[in-house]
Structure formats: C-alpha cells, structure tokens
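Hi R.,

Here's the chain you asked about this morning:
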Amino acid sequence: MAIGFADFPDLIEKSRGLREMLAKDSLISCADWARILLGVEIVFISDLAGSGVEWSVTTGFGDEFTVSTIRSIQRKLAGLVRPYYGRRPQ
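And here is the predicted structure, written out as tokens:
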C-alpha cells in the first residue's frame, strides 16, 4: 500500500500498535509519525476510505475545528516527517 503498510492486514495490525504507542506516550519513530499523520489526513478527508463528509456526524467535531487541529499537528510534525514527503514511510 502506498501509505507505508505492506497490505491491508499489515495496516490493521500496525494501526493497533500505533494507537497503543500514542495512548502510552511512547517514543515513536519518524516513519511511524508519517504513517499516523497520513492516516489521520485520509480518515478526515476521504469518503472512500474514511469519514469524509460525515466527519462531524461520526466524531462530533466540526470541519473548521478539525482542519485547524490537523494543521497544527502538521506544523508540529513537519520536521519529523519531512523526509517522507512524496515517499512511502519504510
């Protein structure tokens, strides 16, 4: 898959681990931050692979708040994920 996972089962398996790492405030690699950020971006925007136009219904958060939050996260992670711009996190 082009978003840093070998295939769909790998995405499901690694996503669980990434969620646990976030919840435990664990040390996360730059490649994993890139995977997390791209996943968030896809889930928010995509109607095909995420919540898309139903975002506010499924989460309770409005688009304006969410975009502002995602932009803030993108800025904070920019230095860490920059090596993966246009590339698949390995």
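One quick note: The CA atoms of residues 33 and 81 lie 7 Å apart.

Cheers,
M.
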